[in-house]
Write a sequence for this structure.
């Protein structure tokens, strides 16, 4: 049985009967059958349905935000913003898919030669709970607009969101089996990937989950796109606007209660401004008010599950035992709900979880370095490579560091890392491979077919 558990009260909101193995096979076969028709529909037709979907998302943003708050504790205002972003990615691909996938003529000795982009078939999405609508829509909008069909295995703690997304597609007028949600546990993912109708896999999640899915997909010779964990470094240089940088860094760390793969996590500060930054950063983190997601005064909600909070706290405790020092936070509050306070650790060194691992919650590691060269070295001293940022008043230097010296899929100057439908999104190293969003994302699950006419 799949359960929705409210992280504010720890009470079961609703239970869902999972699909059986036979039920899963039946759904996949139906989606595959629909693909053979869907692939031949026009971009105009698909775009109209996608625009319908965008309109419905906007009209239901309050109730969908409520659902997210109930299932994983997201602030209502953050949930509304997430739904609006989902609508924007639907509009973006409705407007641009045909142009992105137009035939590309190439000059050869032949009378005519070109590249044609053709959909692969039914694609499996394995998605996490932290952005339960956005993670799905940034995958499904380009995938469906390109002429593929899709099935979703959502995180087991947000089954209500999975069901709601399927209902949204149906309400928008899409054929019933263009998109379906599979209410299953992770134990059935291997069998789904191995189903002959599944032609590719997109996973957003942890690095261990990504390795597991990649191994299965590889054994089946099926394409996969992986957006995995991150331990994003933020470099604060001596010429940065320290007060502004501290505000942005705190926002980047506390968004979604710190439960974001591209959340700011390691703050690498040159020693000349270390004390000044830490003072302002501590003030900004301390100003956060964690409470009920429906309370307008709350700036941070609870963590999504009790086990996730416990794992985070153990990382903090282990780092402290190895010499890290707590500036603020670091203790589980005595109150109902899976809350964890904004926490700052300093004197963070290699060998500590706060240095080596991803801290998936509102905990910041502040690291002092002597100069910009050491800052870059420490930033890249990680197995992850999702996002990174640099704060400096020397824009030319900041751009050079972002472009040429930081090892990550997305590097920002004087802002926290965020995704945008117009820009490719993804990581390197153990943060995954492949790209979502933009023109790059829509081509991931396409056959770039060479056509030559003599």
């Amino acid at each position: 049985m799949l359960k929705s558990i409210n992280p504010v009260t720890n009470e079961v909101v609703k239970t869902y009967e999972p699909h059986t193995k036979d039920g899963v096979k039946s759904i996949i076969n139906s989606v595959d059958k629909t693909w053979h028709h869907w692939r031949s529909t026009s971009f105009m037709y698909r775009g109209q349905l996608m625009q319908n979907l965008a309109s419905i998302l906007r009209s239901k943003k309050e109730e969908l935000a409520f659902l997210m708050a109930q299932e994983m504790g997201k602030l209502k205002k953050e949930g509304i913003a997430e739904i609006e972003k989902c609508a924007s990615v639907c509009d973006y691909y409705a407007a641009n898919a045909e142009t992105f996938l137009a035939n590309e003529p190439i000059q050869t000795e032949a009378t005519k030669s070109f590249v044609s982009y053709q959909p692969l078939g039914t694609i499996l999405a394995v998605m996490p709970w932290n952005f339960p609508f956005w993670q799905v829509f940034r995958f499904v909008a380009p995938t469906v607009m390109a002429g593929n069909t899709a099935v979703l295995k959502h995180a087991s703690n947000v089954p209500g969101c999975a069901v709601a997304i399927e209902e949204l597609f149906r309400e928008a007028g899409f054929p019933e089996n263009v998109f379906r949600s599979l209410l299953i546990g992770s134990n059935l993912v291997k069998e789904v990937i191995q189903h002959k109708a599944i032609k590719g896999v997109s996973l957003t999640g942890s690095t261990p989950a990504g390795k597991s899915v990649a191994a299965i997909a590889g054994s089946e010779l099926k394409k996969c796109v992986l957006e995995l964990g991150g331990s994003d470094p933020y470099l604060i240089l001596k010429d940065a606007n320290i007060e502004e940088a501290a505000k942005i860094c705190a926002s980047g760390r506390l968004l979604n209660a710190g439960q974001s793969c591209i959340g700011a996590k390691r703050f690498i500060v040159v020693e000349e401004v270390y004390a000044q930054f830490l003072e302002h950063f501590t003030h900004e983190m301390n100003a956060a008010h964690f409470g009920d997601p429906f309370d307008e005064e709350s700036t941070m909600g609870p963590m999504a599950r009790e086990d996730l909070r416990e794992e985070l706290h153990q990382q903090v405790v282990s780092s402290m035992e190895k010499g890290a020092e707590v500036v603020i936070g670091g203790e589980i509050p005595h109150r109902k709900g899976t809350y964890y306070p904004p926490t700052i650790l300093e004197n963070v060194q290699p060998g500590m979880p706060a240095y080596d691992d991803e801290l998936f919650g509102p905990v910041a590691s502040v690291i002092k370095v002597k100069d910009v060269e050491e800052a870059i070295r420490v930033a890249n001293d990680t197995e992850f490579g999702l996002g990174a940022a640099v704060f400096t008043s020397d824009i030319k230097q900041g751009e050079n560091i972002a472009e040429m010296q930081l090892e990550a899929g997305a590097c920002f100057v004087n802002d926290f890392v965020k995704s945008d439908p117009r820009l490719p999104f993804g990581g390197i190293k153990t943060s995954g491979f492949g790209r979502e969003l933009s023109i790059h994302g829509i081509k991931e699950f396409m056959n770039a077919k060479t056509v030559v006419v003599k």
Summary: The longest helix spans residues 76-100.
